[in-house]
Amino acid sequence: MQQWYAFMLGGETVLSMVEQPQSLRTTMLVTILITLVCAILVTSSVTLLKPRQLAWLAIEQNRAIIAAAGLSNESSSLSAGEVVERMSVLSASLLEVNRLEVTVGPQALVFDFFTGIDAGGEVYVIPPGLDVAGLGKRPTHAPVYALYAGGKLQRLILPFYGPGMWSRISGYIALESDLNTVASIVFYQHGETPGIGDQIEQPEWRNHWVGKKVRDAAGRLRLGQGAKGGDSDYRLYQLDAISGATVTSESVIAIVSYWLGEDGYGPYLAQLQEAPL
Fold first, then answer.
1. Residue 173 near residue 184 (C-beta atoms within 8 A)
2. Into how many domains does the chain fold?
3. How far is CA 203 from the centre of its chain?
């Protein structure tokens, strides 16, 4: 193979035809072949491993659910079989959030809530005046989980997600049988700053939520709010931000407040309080 090269000689440009070495063509061919083989191997690996990755994510998600339900010690390591066994104790249903339609069955267990889009691509655009957490839009459905003992409701576990400082924060909040008292809050995924924003996962801050009331006697959403009009019971609702991680912790409070509010689970919880599960 011949190729023209240009160089300077005595101030003038000189063109010269030079034979391209056979080794260069061979090297280029080998490089292209190696690249193609690697691309095929990577694509095949991703395809083959995807079901296993999805199964692993499902188990990790279930770990968070049973932790919120109080069915596991978060510091303990349960096998996949043990996680599935404890999940079977819970009653799962799929809630159409706006229409308050509930479907009991396996649909809830396979519904991908945290993508923010329904399986059929359906989303609900949140009115700006109600979007206190800055979600923009959310799925129209949400999986909910109930824990019973002796035929009576013990805990209701609800998923939530929303924007933190640097990432989407997702998790589960559990309410006591009165559907107005926080039993626990567990985080499933986030990408907040290590050593700063990830302090939301620390037991000290999460335990701060336990026992807080969602609404006051008049039915007004109060969770996360401080004193109003000099009321003496504001500590029933107040949640303090984490020093050094104020933005992330306040984002969590805003996210949970949205989901438990009138544009989220609020009407569903009110309906359940009138006609308990």
1. yes
2. 1
3. 19
Q: Which amino acid belongs to residue 196?
A: I
pLDDT band, very low/low/confident/very high, at 75 (cuts 50, 70, 90): low
pLDDT in tens, 42-67: 554 444 433 343 344 578 899 999 99
Convert the pLDDT of each residue in 136-160 to its tens digit.
999 999 999 999 999 999 999 999 9
CB distance 211 to 239 below 8 Å: no
**Residue 8 located in a structural domain:** no
- For 147, the token pair is 């824990």
Q: How far apart are CA 143 and CA 179, in angstroms?
A: 16
What are the distances in angstroms from CA 70 to CA 142, 156, 207, 240?
20, 11, 13, 24
pTM (2 d.p.) = 0.78
Beta bridge partners of 176: 155
> Which residues in the chain belong to E strands, given as ranges?
2-9, 12-19, 91-96, 101-104, 123-125, 137-139, 141-149, 152-163, 168-176, 182-189
Residue with tokens 């989980």: 145
Q: Is residue 187 part of a domain?
A: yes
* Structural domain for 267, as ranges: 90-274
Split at pLDDT 50, 70, 90, the class of 118 is: confident
Q: Using an 8 Å Cβ cutoff, are 263 and 277 in contact?
A: no
What gap in Å lies between CA 231 and CA 237, rounded to an integer? 11
Q: Specify if 58 maps to a domain.
A: no
pLDDT attached to residue 18: 46
